[in-house]
Amino acid sequence: MQGEQGWQPLKVNAIALEDLRSRQGRTEFSRGVYAFNTQGQLTVRTTGKQGSGILRSMSEANCLIEIAPAIDTVKVGESVTIIPLQGRI
């Protein structure tokens, strides 16, 4: 961005607070909300329904949850990759 070469978004791992599903064979992104729990661990949950017309979920999100193509399900307590949204940190 702004002429920077090889820019990549910040990606960190968080603990899923709910089961997540994805279509295997493609990278899936869901809007999410991350926070630190009482043990200081980074956790994440979805904003609910992910439809393109659901503005509430877009305004609540402070990250994107990235599920890799090889994964079809993430269970509660498992690690998942998140991309914090700039300006929402």
Automatic annotation (TrEMBL):
Signal peptide: none annotated. GO terms for biological process: Mo-molybdopterin cofactor biosynthetic process. Residues 14-85 form the MoeA C-terminal domain. It catalyses: adenylyl-molybdopterin + molybdate = Mo-molybdopterin + AMP + H(+). Its EC number is 2.10.1.1. Keywords: Magnesium, Metal-binding, Molybdenum, Molybdenum cofactor biosynthesis, Transferase. This is Molybdopterin molybdenumtransferase. It comes from Vibrio cholerae. The lineage of its organism: Bacteria, Pseudomonadati, Pseudomonadota, Gammaproteobacteria, Vibrionales.
